[in-house]
Amino acid sequence: MKWEMAAPRDHYAKALISLAEEGKDIVVLDADLSSSTRTARFGKAFPDRFFNAGIAEQNMIGIAAGLATTGKTVFASTFAVFATGRAYDQIRQSVAYPRLNVKVVATHAGITVGGDGASHQIIEDLALMTALPGMTVISPVDIHETEKAVRAIAEMDGPVYMRLSRSSMPVVTDEAAPFEIGKGQAIREGDDVSIIATGIMVSRAVEAAENLKERGISASVINISTIKPIDRELIVAEAKRAGAVVTAEEHNVIGGLGYAVASVLSEEYPVPLKMVGIEDTFGESGSPDELLGKYGLTAGRIRDAAEEVLRMKR
Amino acid sequence: MNGYTDETVRMIAEKARIMRRDIVQMIYTAGSGHPGGSLSAADIIASLYFHVMRHRPLEPGWPDRDRFVLSKGHAAPALYAALAESGYFPVDELLNLRKIGHMLQGHPSMKTTPGVDMSTGSLGQGLSAAIGMALAGRIDGKDYTVYTMLGDGEIEEGQIWEAAMFAAHYKVDNLIAFLDKNGLQIDGPTESVISSEPLADKWRAFGWHVIEIDGHDIPQILDAVEEAKDMKEKPVMIIAHTVKGKGVSFMENVVGFHGKAPNDEQYRQAIDEIGLGEIGVVE
User: Fold this and answer.
1) Catalytic site residue from A4, A21, A22, A57
2) Which residues of A are less than 8 Å from B133 in CB distance?
3) What is the nearest CA distance from A56 to chain B, expressed in angstroms?
4) ∠ Cα A180 A185 A191 (to 5°)
């Protein structure tokens, strides 16, 4: 399938600039990665509201927290591995516990970081962030959702973690598509199996559904852009309709979307379920496409998983 | 704050004494807590809450207030005593320290306790938050001052030095930090665990203006704050030489009273030494 490709991080900066232009009392912080995260663009437009903390993520989060206590809406950005790993305790203690209005928007999530290798490819950020009480966790699927999500998280009060890819992502939705925190979106309808995905795997899920259709299998594709609070209603409705579920994410199979969906369904409506994701292994250097291929984050793997769960259906 | 008189000094000293009683009693009643580092901080915190800081106990969220971040969060009893005696909440609430369902948490919690400007407890984080508050003041064109207090063991945390570099780089001069240098930490004297000397030199090297004082001498505390307020373009670190457990003879300079509540006998002795009776007991 041919997708239009565009980089969410560019739209992150665009949305930040719009918010400030509209008079929203926002402050943006970065940790020496502002050209990569694109917060530098905001910094150029609003230099009094941008602070580069240098290679000091822990301090950056603390500064963000302090700013937020005065009523500002604070965005703090760096690579996902440093945001959620290096500064985990700071997010926990200084942001999540006091429920401060800090939005940690991290780029370069997952293995599509590419050549930098495992040290820079976080595969556990969703696990870390969803286990924090009061944390809203967002994984926008494309540039359109990214812009809407930035606005939506700026409107709400409370801690947010949002993960963005490094690379260009397939444009899966459009400007008119609705976005609401806590609500998944049906990208495609189907009755035999439901593919529940997030991020880059949504486009792969659509490709897999096309493939399955050729084999006479009708698959729905659901985009879960809010990992926490997860859209339990939609997930259960899909399980009821299809009776079999596949999840797909650019994240460890442990602790991410798959686990969240599994926990919802085991409690409310157990159905055969297979999780597609990184099989509890660190990444490595390579090109994004090579890595997605090698680590099983493909439409083919989703298709195989769908056929497996269909065999498990009673 | 425009200067002070002998009466000011006496008043602050008396408040500090009351706070020491409160600290001892609340920790004893709770059965746990951190007396040593709360007592060493009492004179500075009393000076801040009863004279230096511009704040409104009946309006804890007053946007133009001076702020205080207790980065060494385990000294919460000292902060709570100051808040209660200032009128943020009733003094007898202090006796509910650490009790389930009550507002005074083991470490400061801004969401549950009026007057607490920042949640702390995991060492090394409060200084960053204080700097963030100071920056906000600059962005908003406000003239409040942010005060913070660090521990001398706490400065072993790397984040403190990240924050120190940031504050100097961004010339955060509406920030005044105190370092409660009582020389002890949990596993022994700070110099034995991880040597941090020359400490004043380190802060100067990081671009801070440094003032060294006796942290139990109220005129020195007040003079240092005045000097700090006049310092422009640089954040200020007031290194306060203190005695851990100050005010309770058997706790003074004793490593063991970092995080241990007094037993019945020790409590009685401490209360007698402070000489103000107990909260809730009419003498």
Assistant:
1) A57
2) 66-67, 69-70
3) 6
4) 155
Across the interface, of B120, B130, B162, the residue whose CB is closest to A56 is B162
What one-letter code names the amino acid at B192?
S
**Residue A218, burial from CB neighbour count under 10 angstroms (0-12, 13-18, 19+):** middle
Looking at the DSSP bridge assignments, the partners of residue B233 are: none
C-alpha–C-alpha distance, residues A29 and B197, integer Å: 33
d(CA B236, CA B243): 22
Average pLDDT of the residues in B188-215: 98
Q: CA-CA distances (angstroms) from residue A251 to A123, A163, A206, A279, A298?
A: 5, 11, 18, 9, 13
Instruction: State both tokens at A99.
Output: 């429920």
CB of A264 closer than 8 Å to CB of A236: yes
Residue A56 with chain B: CB contacts under 8 Å: 159, 162, 165-166
B37 pLDDT higher than 70: yes
Report chain A's terminal Cα–Cα distance, integer Å. Answer: 33
- For the question of residue A189 being annotated catalytic, the response is no
pLDDT band at B281 (very low <50, low <70, confident <90, very high): confident
Look-up of token digits 């709770």: B30
The backbone region for B31, taken as left when phi is positive above 0, alpha when psi lies in -120 to 50, beta otherwise, is left
Q: What is the pLDDT of residue A254?
A: 98
Is B30:B23 a contact under the CB 8 Å cutoff?
Answer: no
Measure the CA–CA gap between A126 and B280, rounded to whole angstroms.
Answer: 50
pLDDT along chain A (314 residues), means of 10: 95 98 98 97 98 98 98 98 98 98 98 96 98 98 98 98 94 97 97 98 98 97 98 98 98 98 98 98 97 98 98 86
Please give the mean pLDDT across all residues of chain B.
97
Contact residues for A274 (Cβ-Cβ < 8 A; gap 6+): A245, A246, A247, A305, A306, A308, A309
Check if the beta carbon of residue B56 is closer than 8 Å to that of residue B19.
Answer: no
Peptide bond connecting A229 to the previous residue in cis, omega within 30 degrees of 0 = yes
H-helix or E-strand containing A267? Answer: helix A257-268
Global pTM reads 0.97
Q: How far is B84 from chain A (nearest CA, A)?
A: 21
What values do phi and psi take at A218, rounded to 5?
A: -95, 115
Q: Which single residue is written with the structure tokens 């159905």?
A: A271
Distance CA B225, CA B215 (A): 12
Structure tokens at B160: 């403190």
Which chain A residue is nearest to residue B121, measuring alpha carbons?
A: A93
β-sheet bridge partners, residue B212: B239
Instruction: Write the pLDDT tens digit of every residue in A81-110.
Output: 999 999 999 999 999 999 999 999 999 999
B35 phi and psi angles, rounded to 5 deg: -70, -45
In 3-state terms, what secondary structure has residue B271? helix
Q: Is A82 on the interface with B (CB under 8 A)?
A: no
Distance, CA of A33 to chain centre: 19
pLDDT of residue A167: 82
